């Protein structure tokens, strides 16, 4: 989950076929999606779709990436990025909405999830923020996508923020749940008030060997607990959880997760090839591309006040509070609202 950093330190800060989705949704076609004139989506009940038709694989940088794809191949690209401990099913209802609106939708498993694998056993199982952002650029290059709307939540929102801040020429627009989540090791050295520190209990647990062993042994139990506390009003069923939990069986998942949280606290080294990138991120660069940030009204995970990060977006910008008991996994809990934000920002 995100290491929302306050400005002093952590900036508290089977799917239905496309034709069925189109029948359910009164949406615009590819030309409207490209021009930003797409009609508002009609209501869709969360959980309408349960899976993606197929998972594709492609070599991209250090990885063989597993990803779902929907929509016309010549549609304007949208890349949807999930967080921890979730997976691509967070977008299982969002993707067909956007596909029916004419977008080419790419939903990759992050490193350490699902069918994504490292190409070499010698590659460090690195979870630092810069590595995940470079993965997105490598995937775009492999798919020959020059520019895309990037949207995500949790780790995916941070990754989307980084790509938009560092490679704005590759990003048409941004949607980020919980706003500006770019962090730095230096900023993370400053203590937070006790109540805020309490919400990061798992981060400190992961700094210990006991925590690593515990997460490895009880991965599913751990993930379910995070889902429940981060989205206290989301009454997901066992089948919904298990569809995503299967992605945590990836052989690199534990190593990536543990390294991510240890790196944040300077308890694990990153890779030298990302040093320059991390120096740029430590300056908390402004995001200039058109952006919409979202927040659920029942997000139980640590997250920043929108006022704390509004000035980090220098381009056209809007913030939306999504009501109705919506928690941390906003795209899966409120797919219509998330899709509408993507369609809106694509037209900015």
Q: Unreliable segments (pLDDT under 50, ≥5 consecutive)?
A: 2-32
Number of helices: 15
Helix content: 25-40%
Question: What is the N-to-C order of secondary-structure elements (H for helix, E for strand)?
Answer: EHHEEEHEEHEHEHHHHHHHEHEHH
Major beta sheet summary: 9 strands, mixed
Percent of residues in β-strands: 5-15%
Radius of gyration: 18 Å
Mean pLDDT level = 90
Distance between the termini: 29 Å
Shape: globular
Tally of strands: 10
Helix/strand/pairing category: alpha/beta
Summarize the structure.
By secondary structure, the protein is an alpha/beta fold. It has 15 helices and 10 strands. Strands 2, 3, 4, 5, 6, 7, 8, 9 and 10 form a 9-stranded mixed β-sheet that branches.
Q: What does this protein look like?
A:
By secondary structure, this protein is an alpha/beta fold. 36% of the residues lie in helices and 15% in strands. The chain has helices at 18-24, 30-35, 94-100, 129-142, 155-166, 194-198, 201-205, 209-217, 219-230, 238-245, 253-264, 275-282, 306-309, 330-333, 335-346; strands spanning 5-6, 56-60, 63-70, 77-81, 104-108, 117-118, 148-152, 171-177, 291-296, 317-322. Helix 1 (18-24) crosses helix 3 and helix 4 (129-142) packs across helix 5. The protein is globular.
List the helices and strands and how they pair.
Elements: E1 5-6, H1 18-24, H2 30-35, E2 56-60, E3 63-70, E4 77-81, H3 94-100, E5 104-108, E6 117-118, H4 129-142, E7 148-152, H5 155-166, E8 171-177, H6 194-198, H7 201-205, H8 209-217, H9 219-230, H10 238-245, H11 253-264, H12 275-282, E9 291-296, H13 306-309, E10 317-322, H14 330-333, H15 335-346
Parallel strand pairs: 4-5, 4-7, 7-8, 8-9, 9-10
Antiparallel strand pairs: 2-3, 3-5, 3-6
Helix pairs in contact: 1-3, 3-15, 4-5
């Amino acid at each position: 989950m995100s290491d929302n950093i306050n400005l002093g330190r952590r900036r508290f800060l089977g799917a239905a076929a496309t034709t069925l989705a189109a029948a359910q949704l009164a949406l615009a076609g590819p030309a409207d999606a490209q021009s930003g004139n797409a009609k508002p989506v009609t209501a869709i009940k969360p959980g309408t779709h349960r899976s993606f038709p197929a998972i594709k694989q492609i070599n991209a940088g250090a990885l063989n990436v597993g990803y779902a794809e929907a929509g016309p191949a010549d549609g304007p690209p949208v890349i949807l990025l999930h967080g921890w401990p979730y997976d691509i099913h967070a977008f299982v209802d969002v993707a067909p909405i956007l596909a029916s609106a004419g977008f080419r939708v790419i939903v990759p498993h992050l490193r350490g999830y699902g069918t994504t694998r490292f190409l070499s056993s010698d590659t460090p199982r690195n979870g630092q923020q810069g590595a995940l952002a470079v993965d997105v650029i490598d995937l775009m290059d492999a798919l020959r996508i020059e520019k895309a709307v990037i949207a995500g939540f949790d780790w995916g929102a941070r990754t989307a923020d980084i790509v938009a801040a560092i490679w704005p020429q590759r990003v048409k627009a941004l949607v980020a749940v919980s706003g500006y989540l770019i962090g730095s090791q230096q900023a993370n050295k400053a203590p937070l008030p006790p109540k805020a520190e309490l919400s990061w209990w798992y981060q400190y647990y992961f700094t210990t060997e006991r925590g690593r062993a515990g997460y490895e042994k009880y991965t599913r139990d751990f993930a379910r607990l995070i889902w429940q506390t981060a989205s206290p009003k989301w009454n997901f069923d066992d089948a919904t959880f298990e569809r995503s939990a299967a992605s945590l069986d990836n052989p690199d998942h534990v190593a990536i997760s543990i390294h991510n949280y240890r790196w944040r606290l300077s308890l694990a080294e990153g890779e030298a090839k990302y040093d320059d990138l991390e120096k740029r991120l430590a300056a908390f660069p402004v995001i200039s591309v058109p952006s919409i940030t979202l927040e659920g009204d029942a997000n139980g995970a640590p997250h920043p006040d929108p006022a704390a990060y509004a000035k980090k977006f220098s381009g056209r910008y809007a913030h939306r509070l999504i009501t109705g008991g919506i928690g941390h996994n906003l795209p899966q809990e409120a797919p219509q609202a998330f899709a509408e934000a993507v369609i809106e920002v694509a037209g900015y």
